[in-house]
Structures are given as structure tokens and as C-alpha cells.
Write a structure and sequence with these properties.
By secondary structure, the protein is α+β, with helices and mostly antiparallel strands. Helices cover 59% and strands 15% of the residues. The protein has 4 domains: 37 residues; 132 residues, no CATH class; 102 residues, no CATH class; 153 residues, Heat Shock Protein 90 (2-Layer Sandwich). The strands form 3 sheets. Strands 2-1-5-4-3 form a 5-stranded mixed beta sheet.
């Protein structure tokens, strides 16, 4: 347990930590407020703000060279006025200017002293009244001959402008060239305060002008970009929200504005996707309604078919020759109808349940499927099985049973469709490769026609026999795919050969 001193230290550290967190929160609060404001604004508001900001940034970049140039111009004007004053002094004998005129010239030039240099000789034209302390000396060079010299001079002038704005009541001496040959120099001594005040006034004028220009530019750019980009994007967004309320309404599809740019492409692609989606939803609704109707008639239709089958079974017992001649045909037609209805009802009913997978021995399951299909059939169809007794497969037993039943039934029907064939054979081979099991169901029947291969796994389109539905392969493929596997048709020299590939689950 800490003593009172330790507790005091701990409490003090906690207090400092809390104060630090509060301080950081206070510092970040303005940034968070700006972020929330920005995120809550719409695209038009963001556009006009960004435009104004960019214009202000551009004006800020221009401000420093501009005010530096203004400073040089202001000093050049003082030098020019001083030169005129010096020329006026030369008009009097011995340079003796009346005191009143001297005061007017100095006041007009806004200088305290004037000196000139020519041919290496320096002459004090207007000496200062009293003692002066020079705080800094500026030299205004003539125009540079090269670009790099000019750039260097610009940087120096910008630095001097900043120094002037930050100075406080300095007295400076300015030296500049006079005359057409730039051989003569004129020197002046001036207080820097008037220059600083003039630069501040100029800077404020530039500031207000920049604000006005930025606002006007932002407004112009906003209306231009709003018409070209923002308004079309807003229309696209509004259309998407409107379409989402009722995707099946064809009237809500994005209209074609005829634009040829990227926005026009986006509009056309959006309209195409909306049409596809609307069509798919309409088809889905029709299929859903069909499924509901099928589910409702499922029970009654099964009962009617069962009653018809019972009646046909009773007809077999009637010794009448005519009845005995037509009863087999009736029973065959009835069996085909029952098989067709069962497949259709099964396919159009509720979707398959999620497979309940477990490790099951494959060989007993294959034997059970063969028995359910009446294999082998004496004198017509033989059954060959090549499955190791210890082979286990990770699958739903009922789903795999149905898939194998459909494949073996199709194989038997393909063999029996060949009139007079007595050496029919249905073969089931299975093997394991790593975490995958391969099951091949082959027959030596009539095979799969080339035309049927194109729609082999499509409902009501992939049947290989006349009057068939093609649902057996579709259902088998769906059951296998639900396990993450695949059902494919392999090349075979005779008959057909289907392969089921089932992977094991990814156990932790």
C-alpha cells in the first residue's frame, strides 16, 4: 500500500495527465469543428469554398512580390523628387538655396537629407538639420541584365519589404542611380515610418481586392461548374435514390440527356444497369409467384397422380384383351407424367436446405442408391462399383444420395433408350486426392448429344431425351455446388461420364 507521499505523487501525475488530455482536446476542438462543418456540407458549398480558398492562396502568393514592387516604386519616387531638388539647387549660384525653398523641396521629396555622387565625387546637396542616426542603408540597383540576377534581386526586395513591415521608426539611407547612363548616384535620408504606413495601406487595398476577386471568381466558377458538373451529378444522385424506392418502375430509369462526355457515359451506364436490375427483379417476382403457385398445387397434384396410379394398377388385373393391350402404354405414360411432375414440383418448390455435412462412408451409400434404382437389371443393365470400403466423404448424406440417384437414373435411361441393347453397364468410381473426393458415374449408353451439351445444366433445356425436363442434372449440380463442389461432363469414348468433385470442409 503506498504511503501518503506516494499517493500524493500518483495523484499529481494523474492530475497532470488529465490536464494534458484537456489541453490536447482544446487544441483539437477547432479542427474537429472544421471537419464536422466540412463533412456536413454539400458538393456545391464545398466547391464555392474551395474556389475562394484557392483564389486567396493565389493572391497571397502574389502579395509579397507585389508589395515589394510597391516599396521599390515608392523609394524610386523619393529618389526622383530628390534628384529634382538637386537640380533646383544647381540653378542657384554656389548652391545657396533660400531656406523657405529648401524646406519646401525637402517636404515635397519627403526626405531629411540629399546627396549626389558623380565621377567619384560626393556632394551633400541638402545637409540634414541636426545630427541623424542611420539605422540601415538600402541600395536600389538598376535593372538586371540576366534572368537569374533579376530573380536574385526580387528575392532581396521581398526580404527588405518584410523587414520594413516589421521595423519600428527606423531612419534609413537609400542609394539609387540617376541619369540616363546610370553612372550618377543619388542618396537620400528618410524616416521609414511613412514608407511602412504606405505599404500597409497598399497591403490592405490588396487584401480587400483579393477578397472581392476571390468571391467573384468563386461565384463565377461555381455557376460554371455547377451547370457543367454539379447539377448533372445531383440529377444522377436524385435519380438513384428515386429508382431505389421502386426499382421495378421502368419510368424511374435514368433518362438520356444526350451528353457525350464522361457524365453522359455515366448516365447511360446507370440507365443500362437500372434496366437490367428492373428486368431481373420483375423476373424474380414472376418466379417467386410461380413458386408459390407450385407449392400450393403440390399436394393436390400428388394426390391426383397417386389415385391415377392406383387405378392403373387395378386395370392390370382385368383380363380383357383390349385393356391388357392398352394398360402398359397407359402405365408408361402415367409414369412419365409422375416423374415429370415430381421433378418440376421439386425444382419449383422451396430452395434446398443448407447441407448438414458429416463424414460418412461412401460405399454403403452408393450401394443404397444402386438398390433404389433397381441395379443391376438382369439381362439389360449391369452395375459396376469401384469404391474402397474405407473411403469417407464429408457431405450431407441425403443431398449426395439425391445427386447420385439423378445421375444413375439418367445413365440407366440412356442405356434403355437403345433398343435391343443387352450389355448395358453403369459404373461408379471413387477416389480421394488430399482433401478432395472424386466420384465418376459412367455408362455405355447413347451419350450426350452435342446440341444438349450447350444447355446441359439449364432447367428444361438440357434434357437428352424426348419429353424430358432436364431437371435431374440441374438439381444434382445445385446439390453438389451447395457443398462447394462441382459437377462436370467428361469426355468419353462411349456413353457419358459425369464427375462429382467434393472438397472437405476447412476445419479449425
Amino acid at each position: 500500500m503506498p504511503d501518503p507521499v506516494q499517493r500524493a505523487i500518483i495523484n499529481g501525475n494523474d492530475h497532470d495527465s488529465d490536464d494534458g488530455k484537456k489541453g490536447r482536446s482544446l487544441l483539437l476542438a477547432p479542427w474537429h469543428a472544421i471537419t464536422r462543418f466540412w463533412e456536413s456540407r454539400g458538393l456545391p458549398t464545398k466547391l464555392i469554398i474551395l474556389t475562394a480558398v484557392f483564389v486567396l492562396v493565389a493572391e497571397a502568393l502574389i502579395f509579397l512580390p507585389s508589395i515589394a514592387s510597391y516599396r521599390v516604386t515608392w523609394l524610386q519616387e523619393r529618389l526622383t523628387a530628390a534628384q529634382l531638388a538637386a537640380l533646383t539647387s544647381d540653378a542657384f549660384p554656389g548652391g545657396q538655396i533660400p531656406s523657405a525653398l529648401r524646406a519646401d523641396l525637402l517636404r515635397t521629396a519627403q526626405v531629411k537629407a540629399i546627396a549626389s555622387r558623380s565621377a567619384g565625387e560626393r556632394r551633400l546637396v541638402f545637409p540634414p538639420e541636426g545630427d541623424l542616426t542611420i539605422d540601415y542603408v538600402y541600395y536600389l540597383p538598376p535593372e538586371a541584365d540576366s534572368f537569374w540576377d533579376s530573380l536574385s534581386t526580387r528575392f532581396e526586395q521581398a526580404r527588405d519589404a518584410v523587414t520594413t513591415l516589421l521595423s519600428n521608426n527606423r531612419t534609413i539611407r537609400v542609394i539609387g542611380h540617376s541619369g540616363p547612363d546610370n553612372n550618377a548616384l543619388i542618396e537620400i535620408v528618410i524616416p521609414e515610418a511613412p514608407l511602412k504606413a504606405a505599404m500597409i495601406r497598399y497591403g490592405m487595398n490588396i487584401l480587400w481586392l483579393s477578397i472581392v476577386l476571390s468571391v467573384l471568381t468563386a461565384v463565377v466558377v461555381y455557376f460554371a461548374l455547377s451547370r457543367l458538373f454539379v447539377k448533372p451529378l445531383t440529377q444522377i444522385t436524385t435519380n438513384m435514390l428515386h429508382f431505389a424506392e421502386n426499382p421495378e418502375d421502368q419510368a424511374r430509369i435514368m433518362p438520356n440527356t444526350g451528353r457525350r462526355d464522361e457524365i453522359g457515359v455515366a448516365e447511360r451506364e446507370l440507365a443500362s444497369m437500372q434496366r437490367q436490375l428492373s428486368s431481373l427483379l420483375a423476373q424474380k417476382n414472376r418466379l417467386a409467384q410461380l413458386g408459390m403457385a407450385v407449392s400450393k398445387i403440390n399436394h393436390d397434384l400428388r394426390n391426383m397422380l397417386a389415385n391415377a396410379q392406383l387405378i392403373s394398377d387395378r386395370l392390370v388385373a382385368i383380363p380383357d384383351p383390349t385393356v391388357q393391350r392398352f394398360v402398359p402404354k397407359l402405365i408408361a405414360s402415367l409414369d412419365r407424367a409422375i416423374q415429370f411432375c415430381n421433378s418440376s414440383l421439386q425444382f419449383g418448390g422451396v430452395s434446398e436446405a443448407t447441407p448438414r455435412r458429416e463424414l460418412i462412408p461412401l460405399k454403403p451409400l452408393v450401394d443404397e442408391v444402386a438398390d433404389s434404382q433397381g441395379l443391376p437389371r438382369e439381362g439389360s443393365v449391369a452395375f459396376v462399383e469401384n469404391v474402397e470400403p474405407g473411403l469417407l466423404i464429408d457431405a450431407d448424406r441425403e443431398h449426395l444420395f439425391r445427386a447420385l440417384s439423378n445421375l444413375i437414373r439418367n445413365a440407366v435411361q440412356a442405356i434403355e433408350s437403345i433398343e435391343g441393347k443387352t450389355d448395358g453397364e453403369v459404373r461408379v468410381d471413387a477416389r480421394r486426392e488430399g482433401r478432395r473426393v472424386f466420384i465418376d458415374v459412367a455408362d455405355n449408353g447413347s451419350g450426350v448429344p452435342k446440341k444438349a451439351r450447350e444447355n446441359l445444366f439449364k432447367a428444361f433445356q438440357g434434357s437428352t431425351k424426348k419429353g424430358g425436363t432436364g431437371l435431374g442434372l440441374v438439381i444434382a449440380a445445385e446439390l453438389v455446388q451447395a457443398h462447394g463442389g462441382s459437377l462436370t461432363l467428361l469426355d468419353s469414348q462411349s456413353g457419358a461420364r459425369f464427375r462429382i468433385e467434393l472438397p472437405d470442409r476447412a476445419f479449425d
